[in-house]
Amino acid sequence: MIREPMKEYCGCMEEIRNRLSVIANLLSGSATLGRHDYDYELVALHLRKILELIAFGSIIGNLEEYFQTFANAHKHWNAEKILADLEKVNHHFYPVPVDIGQRDERGVTNVTDSSREHLTRAEFVTLYNRCGAALHIPNSIKTKRVIDFIHHPGVWLQKIHGLLETHYIALPEDGNVWLVFLNDPKTNRVRALKAGPANQEFETTD
Hints:
This protein is an alpha+beta fold and 206 residues long. The chain has helices spanning 5-28, 36-61, 63-69, 79-89, 121-134, 153-164; strands spanning 96-103, 108-113, 166-170, 177-184, 189-198, 201-205.
């Protein structure tokens, strides 16, 4: 079976979009389990799964190198550890949020690093651990658990959107990148292009 890594990556991003929508509905009150603490636990679950999808999506773009480096990679599940391992394979694996300019007559599109607020690598680890802690029952029935996300979950939602809305991930084998649109205005779906870097200009191919 021939792999289609870019299609697989888009599938991860589509799953993230679905889970972001679930979280937004829970936070707005349009969906509920009937108890505030249950709703927050579900928010924590979906946030953690989103972070795992970001980590596993990064593996897709670096799959061959990842499995060559880590023989037991198929057993990896901890997103925080996956990020650390990915960095050994490709220092530039983490998604980079960008702004897209206009394509010129040469077919070259100007792409610049975005200044929008987004989920940083350090925040990824912090949120991952906070969500993990929220998914366990305290070891004493006398302990009242308070889910501490540090920020309101809506802030984390905005940061994740800021990271993935338009981003690229670097591919280690040829120096190219995948330029990814979380919500392409033409299709209302995830869209990805393979692009070759030249300073801040990318030659994009549909």
